[in-house]
Amino acid sequence: MEIFAKMAASYGLVGSFILVTVVMLAGYSLANLLHQKRMGAAFSILLALVVAWIGGMISHGQQAAYGAELITSVTHGITDVKFITQSGSALAVFGGIGILGGGMMRDYTIISTAWGVKGENIVKAGAAGFIALILGLLISYLSGVGIGYAFGYRDPYELATIGAGVQTFVVGPVTGTAFGVGSDVIALSIAAGVVKSVVVMILAPLLANKIGLKDPSSAMIFGGLMGTTSGVAGGLAAVDAALVPYGAMVATFYTGLGCLLTPTVLANVTAAIIH
Predict the structure, then answer these.
(1) What is the rounded CA–CA span in Å between residue 102 and residue 98?
(2) How far is residue 163 from each of residues 137, 170, 198, 240, measured CA to CA in Å?
(3) How far is CA 150 from CA 137, 143, 144, 185, in A?
(4) What's the pTM?
């Protein structure tokens, strides 16, 4: 155990890949056990959230029943969980998660989703894909604002942050940070985006035949309406792996357009209406 801890601390990115591999293996194994092979990615995300929650609880100072080898730190995340060696030194065995989950790796994976896309198939989607993109942004945003208002939120920028989170869990923090919204609302927006991602991932293979999700054009429209890159990619992978680049590419545009429009146009329109 100490050898693994030293390796993970010295080569943080390698340690983070090992942790992600274990979580994904557990998620897909659980899906196979329940005879739901298509839900492997969804189960993996849920398990990853549980692991992140446990890491946050430990690093907040909670006592964990894992023996004396684990100690806690003063910050709040799985990257702050320490392993104590026999010599008494503290090793951040999961420090590489901060790199793996950082902006550079995120942007790299988003860009990579466009690999394998054929230009002629993009043209076929035409205006329908663009309309789906705009409708997806507006419907998600208005849904989030409506839900936030129903639960008692009245500050327009907090409502905008929640609406942005329903768009994707990337747009939510971008919007909240732009207006200096509290961390609790930003966390709520991220949670809303994660829930949406998991729901899309689960429902896509179940409803694929009923909604005609079977070719690149329909995949692009689906990606534009849903918007969550991870949910769209995971859902389409369970339908047909060849459709993933098309849906994920439009979903990536959705995220970028959301980051541009929501903190500017949509948030200010919301503020004008409420005031």
Answers:
(1) 6
(2) 10, 12, 17, 30
(3) 20, 11, 10, 15
(4) 0.70
